[in-house]
Design goal:
about 625 residues, alpha+beta, Calcium-transporting ATPase, cytoplasmic transduction domain A, Calcium-transporting ATPase, cytoplasmic domain N, seven-stranded mixed sheet, six-stranded antiparallel sheet
């Protein structure tokens, strides 16, 4: 029999005992029979609780459940079996309510683990065979059918695929992927069947990392929760002191019993775990993985945010910044010709150019007579047009720059960008500028972090000062540190952490030491068990910056709710104990009142699952 089943059985026994005893009492068969029934219904709860307390004590744990044992035992010894059985119902009901609350809070986390990929379809000499996901090896060619989960991380082999990544990254709409793109396990094929090549085994794929973090989130305790546990050590002697004082002053042991009953079972050590598990669950729904309650609580107290530049504040790679078209030329047509030609190139910019064309849904043609000039560019024919693309020297030779292109050349003269000159039939038709562009959501994310209480923001990068300065003028930052080595990054993080709780946000392997050194390390767009995600406390699966601000808001709201629950529980229990000590509350009424406090505190803690998190609780 599981513990949750035992708890439900004890609750049923106590309720039936109360009901049968009341029935006997109402029929006038005498109080002795009713008292006996209530006593017998209470004893199983007392026995189970005594065993639980001894077991916990043996492993070095102590909780306020001891108050429930004392109050039920005292009620039976003082000839108050009705109060004892009501306390038994309240205690057993509280444990069942605890099971419900935890189950409710962990439901979203459990949904992640329940949908783990189970099988894969592998191509072999005999055709397509269905195998267990654990049998997939790196390099296997897999077929993913429509509506199936991707079994492991891999590389797309077909031209396009449509993927629903909502369960992994929180992105609500299907994403289009192209040949060569990285695919993550646990995402859903929202289109036609496609082929992929496995790049990781199941245990090392993205979804397995998520499952491991979910397990950690369900077992780890935050300092806040441990503080509530330690408080339990003081609550029992404090309760006994108040009960003893009430008995001494009034001479009535029933008042002491009422004080014990009204302090039972005290929801303080329950509210914090429920709230924190709810917060971790809420974050998981948004594609934010927190490695346990401790990471969430630490994030809630952060006051300084340090950001890496490349791949964090910026996209991280050569992205199309601007197209300058000659008079009479169309930008989309120029991009179509350039991307068609670059399909035959191995240059580092080729992927970025083709990606930009696909983003505009341009149809590419097959290039002919292609000749690549190493380090300079490429020439060939697209449809009926002769196309040359590359450096100014390749395309213009010693020819002058047209007037329409001079302003752009001056504007980007000292900037860390790459310029691709494109000529059609021997005439300069356009200039494409590529560079590391600022993320589209960077400004909004930093503004939200300010609203969430982040007082200081720093850019910390290994890039040169000019590149850092170009990005910093676009953002609301308090400081910029450039040309930093990994060791200097760690030193900078340590210095900021000495002044205030500090969050470090990064995405690369070189960021791992700084992520580990920070109060909270946040890894951006992690793909499985990379060095940065292993060092981080929080992992943002979506390749966006906004979820970082959302993570801070969720953490702050969760901690506020946990604190509210504990303060409210303390205040209400304290007032009830004073009233009981003054003879205003009977033992039976006290048990009912305490259960109402339990329910209120737990329901408040469950608010951490909700979506209303901007700016506060």
């Amino acid at each position: 029999m599981t513990e949750s089943t035992l708890r439900r059985a004890l609750l049923v026994i106590a309720i039936l005992g109360l009901a049968v005893g009341l029935g006997v009492w109402r029929t006038g068969n005498g109080p002795l029979e009713a008292d006996t029934i209530w006593t017998l219904a209470t004893l199983p709860v007392v026995g189970a609780l005594a065993v639980s307390i001894l077991r916990d004590f043996w492993i070095g744990r102590f909780g306020v459940d001891a108050i429930a044992l004392v109050s039920m035992s005292a009620a039976l010894l003082l000839g108050q079996p009705l109060a004892a059985v009501v306390v038994a119902i309240m205690y057993a009901g509280g444990t069942v309510l605890e099971d419900f609350a935890r189950g409710r809070a962990e439901r979203n986390l459990k949904a992640l683990t329940d949908r783990s990929p189970r099988v894969a379809h592998r191509a072999s000499k005999l055709g397509i065979e269905t195998i267990s996901v654990e049998d997939v090896a790196v390099g296997d060619e897999l077929l993913v059918l429509a509506g199936e989960l991707l079994p492991v991380d891999g590389i797309l082999l077909d031209e396009t695929a449509s993927l629903d990544e909502s369960a992994v990254s929180g992105e609500p709409l299907p994403e289009r992927r192209g040949v060569g793109d990285v695919l993550r396990s646990g995402t859903l094929n929202a289109g036609e069947s496609f082929a992929m090549r496995a790049s990781a085994v199941a245990e090392q794929s993205t979804y397995a990392a998520i499952v491991r973090m979910v397990a950690a989130a369900q077992t780890a305790k935050s300092p806040f929760i441990r503080m509530a546990d330690r408080f339990a050590l003081f609550l029992l002697p404090a309760t006994l002191l108040v009960a003893g004082a009430a008995w001494y002053v009034s001479g009535d042991p029933i008042r002491a019993l009422a004080v014990l009953v009204v302090a039972t079972p005290c929801p303080l050590i329950l509210a914090a775990p429920v709230a924190f598990i709810g917060g971790v669950s809420r974050a998981a729904r948004a594609g934010i993985l927190m490695k346990g309650s401790a990471a969430l609580e630490a994030l809630a107290q952060v006051r300084t945010a340090i950001f890496d530049k490349t791949g964090t504040l910026t996209i991280g790679g050569a992205e199309l910044i601007e197209i300058e078209a000659a008079p009479g030329r169309d930008e989309d047509q120029l991009l179509q010709f350039l991307a068609s030609l670059e399909q035959a190139s191995h240059h580092v910019l080729a992927d970025a150019i083709i990606r930009a064309a696909r983003a505009r849904q341009l149809v590419l043609s097959h290039p002919r007579d292609v000749r690549e000039h190493r380090g300079a560019g490429v020439k060939g024919r697209v449809e009926t047009m002769a196309v040359a693309a590359g450096s100014r020297a390749l395309v213009l030779a010693d020819g002058p720059l047209p007037d329409w292109a001079k302003s752009g050349e001056e504007r980007y003269r000292d900037e860390p960008v790459l310029r691709v000159f494109v000529a059609l039939d021997g005439r300069l038709a356009g200039i494409f500028t590529f560079g590391d562009a600022l993320r589209v959501d960077a400004r909004d994310a930093l503004a939200r972090l300010r609203l969430a209480g982040i007082a200081r923001m720093v850019m910390l990068t290994g890039d040169d000062g000019a590149a850092a300065a170009r990005m910093s003028v676009l953002l609301d930052l308090d400081a910029v540190v450039a040309d930093a080595t990994p060791a200097e990054k760690v030193a900078m993080v340590e210095a900021e952490k000495a002044l205030a709780p500090t969050m470090m946000v990064g995405d690369g392997i070189n960021d791992a030491p700084a992520l580990a050194a920070a109060t909270v390390g946040v890894a951006m767009g992690a793909r499985g068990a990379t060095a940065s995600s292993e060092a981080a406390d929080v992992i943002v699966l979506a390749d966006r910056l906004e979820p970082v601000a959302e993570a801070v808001a969720i953490a702050r709201r969760t901690r506020a709710i946990a604190l509210q629950s504990i303060i409210a529980g303390l205040a209400l229990s304290g007032l009830a104990m004073i009233a009981a000590a003054m003879g205003q509350i009977s033992p039976v009424a006290g048990a009912l009142l305490q259960e109402a406090i339990d329910v209120a505190v737990i329901l408040n803690a469950l608010r951490a699952l909700g979506d209303r998190h901007p700016g506060g609780a």
